[in-house]
Sequence to fold (418 residues):
Amino acid sequence: MQNGILSQAEVVRFYNAWLPAMVAAQNSPKKGGSEVEALEVVKRLIPSDGRLLAQEFDLSPGKDRPNLFVTYEPTGFAAMQKPILVAGVHMDCVPGVTEQFKPRIEGGRLYGRGTFDNGSNVLASIGLLNFLAQRSSELQRPVTVAFTADEEASATSYGFDGLVKAGLVNPNDYAAAIFADTPWGAWNTKGVGIYSLAVKTSGIGHSGIAISAGTVALDLFGRLQRVLAEEFPDLGPYSSGSRLQANVFDFDEGDHALTKTLASTVIKGDLRTNPAYPLDEIVAKLNEVAERYVANLESNSQVRQGDVVVDFKLHAHEEGYLIPEESQAMARKVIQGGFDRAGISSYGALQSVGGGLPGLRAFVDKGLVTIATGAGGNPSAENLGNYHAPNESVSLDEVAKGPAYLLGVIETLDRELA
Fold:
């Protein structure tokens, strides 16, 4: 690693160890899997250094959902300051079949489930700690990286949220927080709410051919995504657009789910959007598209009237940004510092991530600077379009810059907090 930028060999070596740990996690007989093997990978790659202090927490009954907090302590007076917390570095991914986790390189990208979300940020965080441990730092405060359990594959709160709820992570102990479960940028954090897209069918159409509610739902889901991108798009490099967040492949727990039978399918997830777009307009447009979709099926004699019923609803939601304006202003500077440190000159529009970890709200409520930005690479369609998917992948060049990006973010935030 030179100046925080990894070699391709270092990136490949990490994923060759990380992806088998993801297979082991999902194959665990425990509900939600187990991060024990993933934690062992992290431990092997973090150097033994007196300036790195590690502490483990495990809230699970079987002690197989570990969390590891690693703190870099600078020398002198700086070591007595409150640290910057890097949260959201979860050590799991969405489930899949074993074949999807086998790493392969093609066209400058490394494929494998769990590479982008969240292997990219685990890799960047490990690289960050290695850089800090091996070089003299001018940081004015410590940095704590929280490698945590329980983000994607379960909702049991054995990870960061559970640690906050149990009082083991106290916002008063930190100077600021970074939520590193995103691509580059992503300061424009917004969690609008949970939606449901329900499709019911009669099961058999008038021609005697089965009508699969699952097929209808997935096709309609794709159409709704395209309408959001076209009619409620990104508003500029520092202002995101709208999208439906869901795992439509094999996720079946919590607020992000796909429950499917021949006659009934429900997709649930987050509707994420820019506050510049009125929610009622978005929901009305999506329902209009859904109604038109069903009408087209009926007019083309594919189904009879009433054979397919679609219902799109937005449930509990929040107006405005999760992240307050003062944090947004700080984030512009901080993210640019990350770009400069990593030598990144071209990137896509910043995405609108969800409300993030509920535990992170405790930091916002305390008035701490809280920024959502990670090292997953450019927020491009190629990256964001395939995570949580069987063909998940990362750009080798982009993830190699992850440690440098995080380092630049932290260095800039450290100066701004002084």
Residues 78 and 140 are 5 Å apart (CA to CA). Confidence is low (pLDDT under 50) at residues 249-253.
